[in-house]
Structure formats: C-alpha cells, structure tokens
Amino acid sequence: MLSRMEKEMMRAVYALSHEKGSCLVSAKELTSRLSEEVNCEDMLSALKSDEYLDYLSSMRKGEEVFVITLLARGQNFPREMRKERETYLIRLIMAVGGAVVSFLVGLILKSLWK
C-alpha cells in the first residue's frame, strides 16, 4: 500500500505519461504538482522499488530531469486506487451493518426478558 505522498506522486506521473507510458519531466515540475515539498529522487526510488515505474536521472541545461517509464503496476494505478476505495467502502458497509444487526438483536433480547 502506498503512502499519501506516493499516491500523489503516482497521480502526477500517470497524468504526465499515461498515453505514451513514459515521459521526460523536470524535478521542479514534479514538485510543483505535489502539495508538499518532497525529495523527488527519494520518492521515485521508493516507487521504483515497489515496481510502479522505472526512471533515469539526468541533467539538462543545469536542471535535473527524470526519464520516467511506467511499468505494469504503474499503468494499472487508477484501477488499483478504485479497488482500494471499493475495499474501504465494503468494510464501512459491513461495520455499519454489523452495528445495526447487533442493535436489533439487543432490542429483541431486551423485549423478550421484560
């Protein structure tokens, strides 16, 4: 499971490269798409170790740029996020349903012993 910032980074990378599967992006542009200031190199390295993407770091006109290629898990990132939301929703429904059932059973048992 990805952290909040890793999800945000994956959304930014996916938006930049989902059509071709790869992109050339500067560290400054990646940082501008994120809500917090993070070290892009560390974040991309973590995503690389989780097999979401592959990247190469380079310098272009004195500016750090990344050549990012989405791997299979990276290309399926939106579907993975949908599945995660569905799982949370099912868990929430099960918890609420369990609470309602236990409340009703409690009322029935209370009415039986009066």
Describe the structure in your own words.
This protein has 114 residues and is an alpha+beta fold. 61% of the residues lie in helices and 18% in strands. It is built from five helices and three strands. The radius of gyration is 22 Å and the shape is elongated.
How is this structure best summarized?
61% of the residues lie in helices and 18% in strands. By secondary structure, it is of the alpha+beta class.
Which descriptor suits the 3D outline?
elongated
Number of helical regions:
5
User: Radius of gyration, rounded?
Assistant: 22 Å
Percent of residues in helices: 55-70%
User: Which structural class should the secondary elements be placed in?
Assistant: alpha+beta
End-to-end Cα distance:
50 Å
Q: In percent terms, what proportion of residues is strand? A: 15-25%
Low-confidence stretches: none
Order of helices and strands: HEHHEEHH
Kindly state the number of beta strands: 3
If you average the pLDDT, what whole number results? 91
For the biggest sheet, the summary is: 3 strands, antiparallel
Arrangement of strands in the largest sheet:
1-3-2
Write the layout of secondary structure elements.
Elements lengths: L3 H14 L4 E5 H6 L7 H10 L3 E8 L2 E8 L1 H4 L1 H36 L2
Helix pairs in contact: 1-3
Please tag this protein with its features.
61% helix; three-stranded antiparallel sheet; 114 residues; alpha+beta; elongated
